[in-house]
Amino acid sequence: MRFFAGALWLLGRHAERFSNCPRMCLPLALIGLTACSRERTELRPVPARTAIYNNAAVESDIHPGGVQPHTQVNNPYEGNAQAIADGGRLFDWYNCSGCHAHGGGGIGPPLIKKEWIYGGESANLFDTIEKGRPNGMPSWGSRIPEDQVWKLVAYVRSLNQEEPKTAVPPRSDTIEQNTATLQNGATQ
Amino acid sequence: MRRCTLPFLFFLANIAFGQQSALDPAGPQAGRIRSLESLLFGISVVIFVGVIGTLAVALFRRRRGIQQEPLESTHRPSAQTERKLLVVVSSLSAVSLLILFALIVVSVVTGREISIKSLPRDSLVVEVTGNQWWWSVRYLDDNTQRIIVTANEIHIPTGRPVVIKGTSHDVIHSFWVPNLHGKRDLIPSRVNTEWIQADRPGRFRGQCAEFCGLQHAHMAFWVIAEPPAQFEAWRRQQLQPAAEPSDPVRLRGQQVFLNNACVLCHTIQGTTAAGQNGPDLTHFGSRQTIAAGTLPNTIGNLGGWITDPQTVKPGNHMPQVPLAPGDEQPLLAYLEGLK
Asked: How far apart are CA A8 and CA A20, in angstroms?
């Protein structure tokens, strides 16, 4: 760290020799660089982090006995570039693309859309994949390990640009949707 | 010092007579590559000794001739020295050029000799597909009933040319069995062809020779060269669907396999398991290694691999599948019984 500070001080003193930009530009850029770090890849997912408890996915706004605060469940892989890419691979491996065609839909409904019948939050998507839905969606819970379901959820969310831009490739290998032009219910 | 000697000797022995050594050729192509290598090595040794010898002579001989003239900025060598230098430099340059040209000719000729153009007839065609991080192997046949699918182990008959049609499923890999042939890149959506032939029976280790991700180092396979009769027996056995388990433990194991995530990626012919993403397990028990040459195929290693694949090969695509208590032993018994 001390070495870095020394190097920064030197560069700050001699910044005008390197460029015409104001004296502090270079050190500031270097400070920015040191703030970067590599995304950690979790190779062995902790089961407790990937399981979903207490039926946290809420599909209806109506609650018996008044509104209850429900548990907020977050995708452990939200914003994780590696997990989103893995999800894309699994989407083909487990033949999701067979019915949903990379989000465009076919035998099954499209996955690039704004209105989700069973909810578009991460917990809802997890539930949909895990338990299945009427009229065709198989329940994958007994087949796909939970961490992989979460990766699939992250991938499906990324199709709708619900994942941070920094974690998603700028250009998709398959179809793309400009959500700005997507009308509510237009594709469903 | 003594501690180093034994491993070093072992290392040398492995280079000379190893199961994965280009210096111990087992087939015609590897033989030609070996001869080319010997030639290049011999010439390089002669040149090296010549250059170092000249340097030594120049360093140690008594200073006279060119060195006696004063080295000043206005220094001009005498006409005699100039002529001498011209002859020496130009003749040596010509010799280097000639040697380099001869080496190019020899290596091009070797390259043509071992290429697919000289393919003999009556060859066996094997399709090898690189995956992160294992090898899918298909024995092609005009009769689709006689196509064999296996993984990480290529059985070949001795004395018969085998065409390798190599491609990749994800990234660029490279197929390399040093005892049989050079490296051949496996490129997605492209088929690269080469042929190999083993002249003697043996087990030859192959390895991915193009960095392909986290587990590149654990992407190995074995080529097992057998006499033709033995190979035919292996082939007949591989053509059978998986043996139906008879005892209750293995029957339970089959149910575990079919009711868990396994079936999404693995195929076992004769059952409903038909996943295409991982290695075909129809005759898993007959293979000698697991996880692409990483571990010997024993029930203990298999147990460790299934329980925690990310410790054996961190980053590989086999997920940790949670099994119900008591399900693992029957599963292992079933898989090891798939001879």
From this structure: 17
Q: Complex ipTM, two decimals?
A: 0.79
Maximum distance among all Cα pairs of chain B, rounded to whole angstroms: 99
A27: β partners: none
Chain B positions in Cβ-Cβ contact with residue A148 (cut-off 8 Å): 319
* B contacts of A47 (beta carbons < 8 Å): 322
Contacts with A, B 209-268, CB within 8 Å:
259-261, 263-265
CB atoms within 10 A of CB A20: 7
Helices (H), A23-172: 25-34, 47-50, 81-93, 96-100, 122-131, 146-159
The pLDDT tens digits for B5-46 are 666 666 666 666 678 888 889 999 899 999 999 999 999 999
Contact B308, B314 (CB under 8 A): no
A144–chain B Cβ distance below 8 A for any pair = yes
Single out the residue of A101, A103, A98, A115 nearest to residue A168, CA to CA: A103
Bridge partners of B137, per DSSP, are B128, B150
A146-156 confidence digits (pLDDT tens)? 889 999 999 99
> What's the one-letter identity of residue B105?
V
Is the Cα dihedral A147, A148, A153, A158 positive or negative?
positive
Q: Is the Cβ–Cβ distance between B126 and B194 less than 8 Å?
A: no
Distance CA A158, CA A176 (A): 11
